[in-house]
Amino acid sequence: MRYRALLAAFFALCLGVLTACSEAPSATSDIPLTYDQIRNTGLANSCPQVDETRRGQIPIEDGTTYKLVDLCLEPTSFFVKQEAANKRKEAEFVAGKSLTRYTTSIEQVSGDITLEKDGSLLFDEKLGMDFQPITVLLPGGDQIPFLFTIKGLKAQSQPGLNAVTTSTDFEGAFRVPSYRTSNFLDPKARGLTTGYDNAVALPARADGVDLARENVKAFDVGQGNISLQVSKVDSNTGEIGGTFISEQPSDTDMGTAAADDVRLQGVFYGRIETGYDA
User: Fold this and answer.
1) Which of 84, 90, 116, 217 lies in the 20 to 30 Å Cα band around 237?
2) Are 233 and 198 in contact (CB under 8 A)?
């Protein structure tokens, strides 16, 4: 019996080592994975990658509109601007940890790419799964919720390019809707379009300044800025990839709290389709 228990422990150890050392399937742009390969792995949150050896360019002709499709943005680092302990120092971005698992990427976003008069390229975001609610945990224990998004993004490149190359950088602004919807109710059933406008059994002076922000809900729409830095281009397939840096405000809890500045860094992937007449 003792040998049988030792053998069982030995085989369990071997199985654990083999499982830890085996490589998980990787998400690529040319070889799609099956549902069984993706399920419970977190790969659905990963953006496809362009081959590292791709250093081509995609010409953008005047009078023709091109589509950037399958745009995917995968954040890998999260930072929140916090006041320094020493009042003599300026506020700085502090690294945080995402509490949201497997659903932090924006994907299937599409829009138009047009050539401007100065030779720059303009990306106009149109539609797609262009938002993801995320919560970040800071070292001090604070939890910062925000809506990672690029809604209505209009990003422009440097002038005089006339093509998407590995030196192209798109920069622009976008809208940041409220993390909460208009039907959200707080713990006291107060909301913007439903619920109460004051907490039930609230004492007199419910309309006082100190309680107004809690009682009167607001759907705040902020503004963010993003920089997409193209580092890989496949001129044969129209695929592009690179890194991005995005800064946007956090949630205000329907106007109750002041928004924090959030910075995200990560990788992106997209594909430029054949142009069509504008």
Assistant:
1) 116
2) no
Residues 135 and 180: their CA atoms lie apart, in Å, by: 13
Question: Could you give the CA distance from residue 106 to residue 101 in angstroms, rounded to a whole number?
Answer: 14
Distance of CA 96 to the CA centre of its chain: 15
Give the list of residues 6+ apart from residue 232 with CB closer than 8 angstroms, or none: 50, 51, 52, 54, 55, 166, 239, 240, 241, 242
Tokens 């809208």 label which residue?
175
Listed range (41-45, 135-139, 213-217, 227-231) with the worst mean pLDDT: 41-45
Q: Which residue has the tokens 């622009």?
A: 172
Per-residue tokens: 90: 């300026």
Q: Which helix (H) or strand (E) holds 4?
A: helix 2-21
Residue 3, strand partner residues? none
Domain 54-180+219-278: give its CATH architecture: Beta Barrel (2.40)
What pLDDT, on the 0 to 100 scale, is given for residue 125?
97
DSSP letter, residue 44: G
Bridge partner list, 58: 164
Q: Are 59 and 163 in contact (CB under 8 A)?
A: yes
Distance CA(188)–CA(125), nearest Å, equals 38
* DSSP per-residue codes, 41-97: TTGGGSPP---TT-B--EE--TTEEEEEEEEEEEEEEEEEEE--SSTTSPPEEEEEE
Complete DSSP assignment for 140-155: TS-EEEEEEE-EEEEE
Q: Give the span between the Cα atoms of 160 and 115, in whole angstroms.
A: 10
Closest CA to 185 of 254, 234, 271: 254
Location of structure tokens 């281009």: 233
DSSP string, 27-57: P-SSSPPPHHHHTTTTGGGSPP---TT-B--
Give residue-wise pLDDT tens across range 197-230.
777 665 666 667 767 778 888 888 999 999 999 9
pLDDT above 90: residue 242: yes
Cα 3 to Cα 183: distance, rounded to the nearest angstrom: 63
